[in-house]
Design goal:
With 565 residues, this protein is α/β, with parallel strands linked by helices. Helices cover 32% and strands 12% of the residues. The relative contact order is 0.09.
């Protein structure tokens, strides 16, 4: 494959001629975002001797879009021209596309900025590679299909929130995750099970390794595949050497390479030595390297067609992500997380385009926007974020915004190799279609039962990222529906809402219409001569003398009186 110069273009799956008129505010989504880039300036390539910006579009934007008259002069003229019918929807999108592409190329820092093509989820990186005709898209599945996984939380690595506050024995694990669970996963559209296991689980084939094999049998019979996620202990045993760690990872690689159900192994960290340890077991086994959003630019590995990034997109990684202490703050936090989800497509596409590492979402795909699942665990920090969960149960506002969050996540996280939902179920809690505990927000079974997640038969709907979430967090369920404007004044009648006209018991007289010409001739002064004009002047003088005498007579009534100060 030959490298090209990547470009940033409109994602026509999101913004196109059929959806542009459904945008709430194109200016806010695109121009408010990009008008500040490059100090607001952009240039053409090749240069034409001019510098442009939001307040000055080049003539070529309109010409290339097929606009032959009244070219779009600047960003403020675009939507009014579309609304007035002066340009088509396709022409509107074409101009936006040219603007986004030109601003991105002017910046020239796409290779170092993972969010350089971020336009609130409306744009994508393009022209990354040229296919030579023999390559197939890189994927964890030989068929090229995307991964739709669910994580076995609490099975082999502690997740106390999912297992009733205790670690499970291997026998309890077998009773917790049964063959029916895997069959139910397959029926929902899941094709993969993600299994976190201790890093040293396969150094010796003990109870944990045997239970993993037991699970893989059930997973395979349900028609599913598996991804093995190796997890290092929170605190290394004293005296553990790098060689021992590498040997443990190699042993896991050998186990995975021999298990037909396993399609990939995720190493414990982004150390190149761990990747080499897997390669000692297999040169073609897909390897996932775990990273977070803060490590995007630091990845550096030798070329490897079977090496992929495993990105954590968790929404509870900082105090700012989880803190809130009143109902409005809870809703504002939800609104915030909805707003930023579609932006996550930028690092997914950037790693693939500039680092040649396609991305798999390994953790963080769920509907939780706080850390309340850890409330009963040691070290939990209480900022008031968990005091009002009962307000969300049965709330129409929370249901709508959770559906919005889920739809945005499904579309965005499907932009890479695929994803894994955070968990399947919580021990001891029934799937009753109601989200009545924080843990259920992380469980695919419960989220689907509550009607919050779109069908997994698709990769999500691009329209999910067309607009930002509805900003109705201030009042929540008390938000009033918009009311109609007052009816027009019908005088002595009344407004008929059905016919949209005024009705009357006695119809009003028709409004007089101006006549074409006067009905009688206007008086003419043409017959007046000099004599008539002198007579009129004398009569006017007499009238003036009489009026003057009357005024003096009236003013004289105050004689002898002292005027008020």
């Amino acid at each position: 494959m030959t490298k090209n110069t990547p470009s940033c273009v409109v994602d026509r799956e999101v913004l196109n001629e059929n959806t542009v008129d459904r945008m709430d505010d194109l200016g806010l989504s695109v121009f408010a975002k990009l008008c500040g880039y490059n100090r607001g300036a952009f240039v053409l390539d090749p240069p034409d001797g001019k510098t442009y910006g939001c307040l000055s579009f080049p003539q070529s934007f309109s010409t290339n879009a097929g606009i032959t008259s009244n070219p779009i002069a600047d960003s403020a003229k675009l939507m009014p021209a579309f609304a007035a019918g002066n340009i088509t929807a396709a022409q509107t999108v074409d101009i936006v596309d040219q603007y986004i592409s030109t601003v991105y190329s002017t910046g020239g820092n796409g290779g170092v900025d993972p969010y350089g093509c971020d336009v609130n989820g409306l744009a994508k990186l393009d022209n990354c590679v040229v296919d030579d005709g023999t390559e197939t898209p890189r994927s964890l599945y030989p068929s090229g299909e995307g991964v739709k996984a669910v994580t076995l939380a609490g099975a082999f690595v502690p997740a106390l929130w999912a297992t009733g506050g205790k670690e499970l024995s291997m026998e309890e694990v077998k009773g917790f995750y049964t063959s029916k669970d895997f069959q139910d996963m397959a029926e929902l559209g899941v094709n993969t099970v993600q299994i976190p296991v201790p890093r040293d689980a396969f150094a010796e084939m003990g109870e944990v390794a045997n239970t993993v094999s037991h699970m893989l049998d059930h997973i395979g019979k349900a028609g599913l595949s598996a991804i093995l996620v190796l997890v290092s202990p929170e605190k290394e045993a004293k005296g553990t050497t790098d060689k021992e760690i590498n040997d443990q990872v190699t042993a896991a690689g050998i186990f995975a390479n021999n298990a037909k159900t396993i399609i990939a192994v995720q190493v414990p960290s982004a150390l190149p030595s761990l990747v080499s340890s897997i390669r000692a077991a297999s040169t073609t086994l897909p390897v996932l390297v775990p990273i977070n959003k803060g490590q995007l630019t630091n990845l550096a590995f030798p070329p490897d067609s079977f090496l992929f990034a495993a990105l954590d997109v968790g929404a509870s990684t900082s105090v700012a992500d989880v803190a809130s202490s009143d109902s409005e703050g809870d809703r504002l936090k939800m609104f915030y997380h909805e707003t930023i989800v579609c932006i996550d497509r930028s690092p997914i596409e950037w790693l693939d385009c500039y680092k040649d590492m396609p991305v798999y979402i390994t953790s963080g795909f769920d509907l939780g926007v706080d850390d309340c699942i850890y409330k009963e665990e040691k070290g939990f920090k209480d900022y008031g974020q968990c005091d009002r969960f009962e307000e969300t149960v049965g709330s129409g506002w929370w249901e709508r915004h959770r559906q919005s969050l889920a739809a945005r996540q499904l579309f965005t996280y499907s932009k890479g190799l695929g994803w894994s939902f955070s968990a399947w179920k919580v021990l001891g809690e029934e799937s009753n279609g109601v989200i009545d505990s924080p843990g259920k927000l992380l469980c695919l079974r419960d989220v689907v039962a509550a009607g919050l997640l779109p069908s997994l038969s698709t990769h999500g709907d691009g329209a999910s990222c067309l607009n930002g979430p509805k900003a109705d967090f201030a009042m929540g369920d008390l938000t009033h529906a918009p009311t109609e404007s007052p009816p027009p004044d019908c005088g002595y009648g009344w407004w008929n809402a059905t016919t949209k006209k005024c009705d009357y018991w006695i119809p009003p007289a028709p409004t007089p219409m101006p006549t074409y010409k006067p009905t009688i001739p206007c008086p003419s002064c043409e017959d007046m001569g000099t004599k008539e004009m002198i007579q009129a002047g004398v009569a006017g003088a007499v009238i003036a003398l009489v009026l003057n005498w009357l005024v003096k007579k009236m003013n004289g009534r105050g004689d002898g009186y002292q005027s008020l100060p």
